[in-house]
Amino acid sequence: MSDQKDHTQYRFQSEPVGKGRLVLSIIKAYVANHPNASYDELKDVFPDALQARSDIQFSEQQVVFAKIGDIEPKETKRFFLKQSELINLSDCQIAVSKEWNHQNIQIFIAAVGKLGYAVSEA
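^ that's the sequence the OP posted. Answer follows.
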């Protein structure tokens, strides 16, 4: 059986990154440009459907990001949780999901393209 995992690298403002780090970088950039953004405001810009509309799902928490306190203990491996990866919003701290595949990353890239974020394959 061959390895079906997608190892595509993407470029957004820096060196090539994988799918999860791409999402992390874009959300960090958005928050840097909107420092007063709240959790609800960010969910309007990056709704969970961007991640969840995929046939391939491993996590029960099908979200783009979650509040730190809302991440189930068994799901922590599926989020960027290092201190440098956490994102502070006006009303809480969030962690971005690592659960991206070829299908849902294309949905995400199309959505952020409409926001003016240029992403290309590396």
